[in-house]
Amino acid sequence: GSSWNNCDFETNLCNVLPEFNLQPGWIRRNGQSGMGPPYSDHNGNESAYFLSLSSEMQSSSAAFRTSVFLPTDEEHLCQIRFHYWVSQTSRTLMVGLQKVSEDAVTNIWQVSGELRNQWNVNTVTINSTEKFEVIFSGMVETQRQGESVAIDDITFSEGC
């Protein structure tokens, strides 16, 4: 709905994902970038932008985090919907929750590449009594050409 804040990456990272939080490893690109799959966004548009892990990643994982969200309440849980692409079994995408009082990140969802070369969609629901950030992490076990992790169209409900 219109009350959802949408990050489609067409113009920038949107205000929920501060620019400086995009660690080396995640890049904003489109399917025409010559960087391998995916070759389009989740709508099949070759020139539309999404985030993907760079094939030149220096480390085995890269994360980006949202800005800090206020605590949720019963009526307004924070729901985050996103499209994702995880190719091959050596790739993993995780979504984690970090509360302001905690150093540790709690893993709330993850997928490894059992699904071959297609966009999928998922929604995570967050219930937190304190301020929190959400962290998206991509992990790579072995570097191979033509394998990737990508994220598109992250939408945040009004409870976030």
UniProtKB/TrEMBL annotation:
<dbReference type="InterPro" id="IPR000998">
    <property type="entry name" value="MAM_dom"/>
</dbReference>
<dbReference type="InterPro" id="IPR051560">
    <property type="entry name" value="MAM_domain-containing"/>
</dbReference>
<dbReference type="InterPro" id="IPR013320">
    <property type="entry name" value="ConA-like_dom_sf"/>
</dbReference>
<dbReference type="GO" id="GO:0016020">
    <property type="term" value="C:membrane"/>
</dbReference>
<dbReference type="Pfam" id="PF00629">
    <property type="entry name" value="MAM"/>
</dbReference>
<feature type="domain" description="MAM">
    <location>
        <begin position="5"/>
        <end position="160"/>
    </location>
</feature>
<protein>
    <submittedName>
        <fullName>MALR1 protein</fullName>
    </submittedName>
</protein>
